[in-house]
């Protein structure tokens, strides 16, 4: 698996980038007929028959990457003085301290860093836009979109070996006796002194998702950890290649952003368990229920109960989080590429499709909250109010005959008693959260409300 930090990424956009670097840097030194042929090959790639597309693209890619390896050794034309062509250069990007087109020395801080594609590479905004536009057309040609995947608590769960509890000891001491499914997805990484458990259904999920999306890994973890996790998830190097973004690649502290993803925001979906890190891209986000397999993970998030590993249990494959979200992704993909739509494919926005699918969950429900928000708290700003609205429900502060649900923590409040009297649904706030994670209105009887002890 070629995942070195300085290796070119093998995606259509970054292949285009590699070709651009080859062609432009070659103009600085002696021209290469081979590189020129590759550039022409890529220009004509849209005319290739469907069956030959991938094979031709792979051949071009291999040749481009081989020539790219010597890029740092090419002489800079800046030492020979500027020319009219150099003066007109828009400096699309910087590689190893020089403009990758005209060769002039540049500020190392200019542009946006794309170190996960190639070490010391920075791109100007106009060049990023050009690459994204071209890549989107190629992806849409194959009826694909982009999918950005978080690692921890979304696709897997990890723990340090020193944090393994006595009740979890069987994972280490009795490995040969473990069920095959658990044994297959449980890894002890001696080099990192940790243990990792892949989420149930992960292999089917990745295989199915790869048919619909070009996938990225995007984690707040360090790069060595991200690369090790990628090897576990994608041992055949077929899903991610080098599209692996780690903490050091982020342009804003404690935040993830699509500014370093070479995909149009209108075609990107994100799976992550943490909403707060995607403040600028909330409309692209599908929030995942956290996967807590190990005790240390449950403890870290404040759960005072035994973990799945301590209970010798696991999330269901048939109706777990990844199974559920795959169904959602299939529906979004189908609606986006619906041949019955009369608009242009490149003008469609997956965020609008996601919004539509999400609003179907609680469509037709009118919700009133009772003793859920802190005193004097602005109800419209509470995450449950916002969540219910996103799911298509109508939220209100006042009771009337159109109310369908009272959401409460206490069956003894006036509003709760009214719900019982008027034969309305009285449900615990977890009803909204469960409907959100499962993408389906949940049976109200599964979320009863008890009388509060604080009377």
How does this model look, in words?
This protein is an alpha/beta fold. About 35% of the residues lie in helices and about 15% in strands. The protein is built from 15 helices and 16 strands. It has helices at about 10-30, 35-45, 50-70, 85, 125-140, 170-175, 180-185, 200-210, 225-235, 295-300, 320-335, 350-360, 385-390, 415-420, 430-440; strands spanning about 95, 100, 110-115, 120-125, 145-150, 155-160, 185-190, 195-200, 215-220, 245, 270, 285, 365-370, 395, 405-410, 425. Strands 10-9-5-11-12 form a five-stranded parallel beta sheet. A four-stranded antiparallel beta sheet has the order 2-1-4-3. Helix 2 (about 35-45) packs antiparallel against helix 3. The termini are far apart. The model is unreliable at about 1-10, about 25-50 and about 55-85 (pLDDT under 50).
> What is the count of helical runs?
15
Query: Span from first to last CA?
Result: 62 Å
Going across the biggest sheet, name each strand in turn. Answer: 10-9-5-11-12
Assign the structural class, choosing from mainly alpha, mainly beta, alpha/beta, alpha+beta, or little secondary structure.
alpha/beta
Mean pLDDT, as a whole number? 84
What does the main sheet amount to?
Answer: 5 strands, parallel
Low-confidence stretches: 1-11, 24-51, 53-86
Helix content: 25-40%
Strand content: 5-15%
**In angstroms, what is the radius of gyration?**
26 Å
Number of strands: 16
Morphology: globular
């Amino acid at each position: 698996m070629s995942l070195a930090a300085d290796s070119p990424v093998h995606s259509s956009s970054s292949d285009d980038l590699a070709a651009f670097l080859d062609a432009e840097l070659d103009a600085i030194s002696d021209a290469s007929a081979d590189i020129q042929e590759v550039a022409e090959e890529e220009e004509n790639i849209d005319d290739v028959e469907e069956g030959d597309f991938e094979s031709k693209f792979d051949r071009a890619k291999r040749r481009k990457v081989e020539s790219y390896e010597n890029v740092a050794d090419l002489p800079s034309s800046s030492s020979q003085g500027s020319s009219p062509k150099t003066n007109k250069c828009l400096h699309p990007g910087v590689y190893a301290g020089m403009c990758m087109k005209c060769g002039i020395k540049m500020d190392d801080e200019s542009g946006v860093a794309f170190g996960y594609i190639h070490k010391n590479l920075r791109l100007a905004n106009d060049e990023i836009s050009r690459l994204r536009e071209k890549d989107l057309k190629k992806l849409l040609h194959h009826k694909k979109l982009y999918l950005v995947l978080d690692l921890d608590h979304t696709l897997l769960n990890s723990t340090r070996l020193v944090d393994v509890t006595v009740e979890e000891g069987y994972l280490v001491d009795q490995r040969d006796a473990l069920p095959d499914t658990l044994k297959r997805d449980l890894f002890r990484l001696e080099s990192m002194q940790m243990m990792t458990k892949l989420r149930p259904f992960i292999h089917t999920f990745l295989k199915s998702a790869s048919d619909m999306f070009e996938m990225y890994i995007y984690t707040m973890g360090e790069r060595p950890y991200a690369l090790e996790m990628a090897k576990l998830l994608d041992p055949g190097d077929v899903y991610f290649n080098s599209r692996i973004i780690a903490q050091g690649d982020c342009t804003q502290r404690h935040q993830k952003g699509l500014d370093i993803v070479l995909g149009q925001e209108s075609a990107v979906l994100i799976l992550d368990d943490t909403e707060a890190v995607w403040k600028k891209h909330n409309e692209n986000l599908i929030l995942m229920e956290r996967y807590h397999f190990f005790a240390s993970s449950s403890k870290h998030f404040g759960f005072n109960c035994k973990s799945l590993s301590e209970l010798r249990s696991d999330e269901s494959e048939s109706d777990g989080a990844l199974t559920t979200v795959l169904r959602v992704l299939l529906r979004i993909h189908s609606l986006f590429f619906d041949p019955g739509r009369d608009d242009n494919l490149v003008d469609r926005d997956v965020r609008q499709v996601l919004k539509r699918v999400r609003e179907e969950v609680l469509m037709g429900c009118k919700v009133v909250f009772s003793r859920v928000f802190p005193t004097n708290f602005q109800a419209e700003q509470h995450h449950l109010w916002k969540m219910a609205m996103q799911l298509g429900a109508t939220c209100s502060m006042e009771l009337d005959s159109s109310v369908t649900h009272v959401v409460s923590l206490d069956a003894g409040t006036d509003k709760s008693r009214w719900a019982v009297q008027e034969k309305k649904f009285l449900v615990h706030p977890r009803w909204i959260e469960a409907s959100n994670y499962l993408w389906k209105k949940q049976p109200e009887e599964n979320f009863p409300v008890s009388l509060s002890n604080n009377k």
